[in-house]
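#structure-requests
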Amino acid sequence: MLWLGVGIPVIGSVLTALALNLLGLGSEPEPAPSGTGEPTGRPSTAPFTVTARQESEAGCTALPRRLSSPADRAELVSGGDVGGVIKRNRGARVGELNVDFTLEGGARSLTIASIDIEPKKLRPSPPLSGTLLCEPNAGGEPKIHLFADMDSPKPVFRTGKDDSTQRYFRDKVITLQPGEQVNLSAKFRAETGSREFGLVIRYVQNGKEAAVPVPAPQGGRYAVTSYAAEYGAAYEGSVGGVFRLLANPRRCRWTPAPKC
């Protein structure tokens, strides 16, 4: 789901825009890390700038395999580089990945025709079930108005609630004036499998069409996974803090609607 920041002027049928960040949460047999809240730092090659930031909120990240490296386990239980552990083991955010984007116009105006989601595989892979890392006491639901169902064979951005069938870019575009900023948030949700994907912005300038990929935050990747029925291991703690290994790695305590 995506949300356009209030108070930012946008010219066109309706406001909209993107840019992503944070631990790229991914899926497919092996997804990527979860967010840190820091900007991507990699400039776009388009005649405008795009920055991405994953929302740093409590929740869970899954890894495709049970952690076997003593060094990785030591990082978790000592409050070390948890983000590095997630990246090295290609972790993915569980349930949903929320990312904030900012587009900033360059020297000349242009029109963003669409932001396309490009899955790495045709269909979702099974949920990641190796290791689960959870941060308890998640905050409230952010205000998001654009949504992508990553369980769909061909996911697209939709507007409204999670069950919306209205494609956002079917009738709308984003006009980006020189120096203008447009902000939005996107929710990528997975309930039955895991998915790794890319994002591509297609735009028109001076009558010419072009496209540019949106780099994943922090050199990670875009990925999200659903909860697995059970995990090889589960840890609880917080990124930047200490994690502890749980005796019972079942998912019930974190799943919104437990099915244990």
